[in-house]
Amino acid sequence: MAQRRGDRVIAVRFVNGVGQKVWNSKADCCRALGITMKKLDRCLELEEPVWIGGQRWYLDMRLEPEVKKKE
Length: 71
Known about the structure:
The protein is of the alpha+beta class.
């Protein structure tokens, strides 16, 4: 049985845009960063950086390619 997962969240490092972290759901991201869902939504909407290991990272939703249905 497949597990239903939420939207993927990606973090890109502020300096040079090098490096990234990916979480499989918004809940996983909140747990890893120790923030609330409300704070996460605000960071995604307003493009506010978060601090991870003393560095600024920007969060964004990872776009998944659409799967074409066979007719």
